[in-house]
Amino acid sequence: MYEFTYHRPGSVSEAAKLAGEHADGKILAGGQTLLPTMKQRLAGPSDLIDLSRLDDLRGIEVKGGVVTIKALTRHVTVATSADVKAAIPALAELAGMIGDPAVRNKGTIGGSVANNDPAADYPSACLALGATITTNKRAIKADDFFKGLFETALEEGEIITSISFPVPEKANYQKFRNPASRYALVGVFVAKTGGHVRVAVTGAGSRGVFRVKDFEAALDANFAPAALDGKSVAASGLNSDIHADAEYRAHLITVMAKRAVAAAA
Amino acid sequence: MTAVSMTVNGQHVSAEIDPRTLLVQFLREHLRLTGTHVGCDTSQCGCCVVHVNGDAIKSCTTLAATCDGADVVTIEGLAKGDVLHPMQAAFRENHGLQCGFCTPGMIMTAVELVRRKGTDLDEHTIREELEGNLCRCTGYHNIVKAIGAGAQAMGAAAE
Ligand SMILES: Cc1cc2nc3c(=O)[nH]c(=O)nc-3n(C[C@H](O)[C@H](O)[C@H](O)COP(=O)(O)OP(=O)(O)OC[C@H]3O[C@@H](n4cnc5c(N)ncnc54)[C@H](O)[C@@H]3O)c2cc1C
Ligand code: FES
Ligand code: FES
User: What domain range includes position B25?
Assistant: First the structure.
């Protein structure tokens, strides 16, 4: 690891102030992505702003048909929350599929969404459920938030404080995991909210998480796996690597989308 | 330098450390508690799992500074004097180890698993929960057996 100056602020405003003062600094949440990258010297922040003392950034609330999860809430908490299981079971299941138990005991929803790894699980839930990402400055619609590989609409020093998910009529997440890394080789989140279907795909896109409008239109007309017969995503925009080539990923997207629809219907 | 103080295996410890110090380095190099192992140093293998405030976490992927004020338990903190913890005893009785390198992490993971999911664990659950713990020797079979038996023994010991 490169050297850094360590800060442990006691409030969100203090954290935001520190983040604003240190343009080359980084926020530390669960550390399950940032610390491995710093150990490999792929990241070398001048300052590390550790949010671990900010207890008011932890917690889950269900109110008025919306599930709001604060940024520092760990994957294990979402996976086991009776409130999330009752309101959006697919979201609790998704959280329970992230990494392994020790990763889920540390990793946070805010860190996962801020990081926008192209194979991460939460971004697909945000897009498919039409979530709103709230920061210390503003509220951002998921459709405007994810900008590409590891890129988001977050500005320097902006801190995610919570993520709100409208409760859908139906939803399901199907993940084809890479057995070694546990990340999604392809993950498809299907949700029907307010009568409209949204389909979001993670793990496959060369620019990160994306929606499949063609699938959405077909499922709006008929919410059944058969509605996706003969439909597929073009392989040209998908990743090819040693784990799977683009054609295989394209095939998996349709398969996982059909499974998600079958499980949700 | 950053000041940290925490409780490790029931003992209060304080130190001035480089903020880069990982929890596993703090345990092994500062406190000489070498039971916690580093298998991969890339967050994959689970050999470094310890408990922080009751949660099983990878100590190679946690800063010691973040654990300021925390209650940490390592493999050295499980036995009561010469009496092994029921999970440790179960690993010995069921041949749940060969070289033993992964064992501290396996046992710390297993003990937390019992706390979360109870003492009646089926094989499927145990295998799923071992997702983050790699063993290069045993083929897992006896580890799974040991954890099932250790969980039962923990239940019996608690009665
Ligand atoms: C072995 C292993 C397996 C994994 N498997 C999966 C998997 O299957 N699926 C999956 O989705 N993920 C997986 N992960 C990643 C894991 O989910 C991480 O917890 C997550 O990506 C990052 O969350 P964190 O809290 O650890 O963030 P950190 O590592 O602390 O931070 C990540 C990034 O987000 C920024 N950040 C953190 N919090 C905020 C905030 N509130 N506001 C603004 N910026 C912020 C940080 O500055 C940093 O750039 C895995 C990780 C490991 C080590
Ligand atoms: S040494 Fe920590 S996970 Fe391998
Ligand atoms: S017993 Fe040797 S690595 Fe598990």
Answer: 2-77
